[in-house]
Amino acid sequence: MASVMRLNLAARLARTASPLRALSSVRQFSQSAVAREMEMPSLHKFTEEEEMLRDAVRKFAQETVKPQAFAMDESEMMTKPIWDGLFEQGLMGIETAEEHGGAGMSFTAAILAVEELARVDASVSVACDVHNTLVNTVLRHHASDYLKEKYLTRLATDTVGSFGLTEAGAGSDAFALATTAVKKGNKYIINGGKMWITNSGEAGIFLVFANVDPSKGYKGITCFVVEKEWGVTIAKKEKKLGIKSSSTCELSFEDVEVPEENIVGEIGKGYKYAIEILNEGRIGIAAQMIGIAQGSLDIALPYMAQRKQFGTAVIDFQGIQHQVAQVATELEAARLLTYNAARLKQEGANFVKEAAMAKLYASQVAEKAASKAIEWVGGVGFTRDFGLEKFYRDAKIGAIYEGTSNIQLQTIAKLIKKDYQ
Ligand SMILES: Cc1cc2nc3c(=O)[nH]c(=O)nc-3n(C[C@H](O)[C@H](O)[C@H](O)COP(=O)(O)OP(=O)(O)OC[C@H]3O[C@@H](n4cnc5c(N)ncnc54)[C@H](O)[C@@H]3O)c2cc1C
Asked: Which residue ranges does the record assign to the Acyl-CoA oxidase/dehydrogenase middle domain (predicted)?
């Protein structure tokens, strides 16, 4: 379509004595044609439903989460009212179908929710992100109707979910996992351990990746839904640099019996589901990172407008203005990468490279924005009460989980190479 329009434009310009007038009439024609025939909204355009959700989450984040963020960080624990609020607001089943108690909304809606929460607290944001974009999505895409009915409803209404893939010996090389699931009658017996599992301190439902036949290597990896009371033990709660109120625990499984109907999808396909889900989950982490970057600006800029030195507001020094403009530009670029990856995913187009780029870049921008924001406000930024040091600490995780930055670079490079083969 665009190339036909370009050819028409070239032909008309060549025929006319007044190329500029012709250009203007072609432009008028093409603009109205675009308006009439093609919907090409900017990446900042959302459906009415998505905008409503974003506004509601912004209100919840600002009014309910923000006042508790500092105390939750200090106590390294999310409070019950915040968990309850996430469920009450419908934020634990954003894409889950209404028949399973969810909101039945788009992936982009989930991304916007994660971003808005991270603007005030990256811990609450990742709790919501992992629950929605990893746990719920694996079940929505691959679980039997029985499992969907049984677990998606609980996950949307009152039970926190965890995603257990990583182990002590299996981090970036996730499929080197050693947890086993051995068939015994109509059950599987799970033995092993998981590391770094988000939400696991509060979760009632765990997706656990275990190998049913280690002789087959990664093709033995199978995904199970495991209920906490079947014997999931929290071996250790990690004390972390950032996202401190999001629980991250080491889990242990000793002869945990799981009914065979709790296998998600097909036996031996767990590796495939894990790759798929982490590819799209990365867009959620990118959203968390742009939320952190925006939240840093939200704290710093009002202070800089009010703080005067040498009789001038700090925000008006050119040396500061250029830095603010640079960070704001990079944030916009990260945001567009993230929204674009989300829309590509939603359209069913290839999005793996774009998702990796979004996560890689957004995590860099978050670190830079939080770091610069501290410098821009001076000494007060270095204190805990002001809030920026929390954003600075919280930003660091973006380069590590759901694939480190090196792994994102590897994915991007592999796909670029493929484009030229
Ligand atoms: C707070 C937190 C929450 C988490 N939540 C979850 C969760 O909910 N569920 C879950 O399953 N996991 C979770 N993880 C695990 C997380 O995904 C892993 O930590 C991550 O994948 C990296 O693995 P690793 O820590 O073992 O690092 P390693 O894989 O040991 O990496 C160490 C270094 O080596 C580099 N490296 C590794 N391989 C390569 C390579 N091929 N090329 C170049 N460099 C390489 C890495 O980039 C990194 O710099 C969480 C981790 C943290 C810290």
From this structure: 162-256
Mutate to test the pocket of ligand 1, among 359, 401, 409 (most ligand atoms within 8 A of CB): 401
pLDDT at 17 over 90: no
Asked whether residue 395 is domain-assigned, the answer is yes
Residue nearest to atom 14 of ligand 1 (CA): 196
Token pair, residue 312, equals 């001038």
Over residues 69-116, the pLDDT tens digits come to: 999 999 999 999 999 999 999 999 999 999 999 999 999 999 999 999
Which range of residues forms the domain containing residue 317?
Answer: 272-419
402: annotated active-site residue:
yes
28 occurs within a structural domain: no
pLDDT, one tens digit per residue, over 351-373 is: 999 999 999 999 999 999 999 99
One-letter amino acid of 165: L
Shared domain for 389 and 400, answered yes or no, is: yes
Ligand 1 pocket test, pick from 166, 241, 360 with the greatest ligand atom count within 8 Å of Cβ, gives 166
74 and 196, same domain (yes or no): no
Are 258 and 302 found together in one domain? no
Task: Please give the tally of structural domains in the chain.
Answer: 3
Domain boundary among 249, 268, 287: 268
- The CATH number assigned to the domain holding 286 equals 1.20.140.10
- Closest ligand 1 atom number to CA of residue 134: 8
Ligand 1 first shell, C-beta below 6 A:
130, 163-166, 171-172, 196-198, 240, 248, 397, 400-404, 406-407, 410
The tokens describing 165, both together, are 């893939």
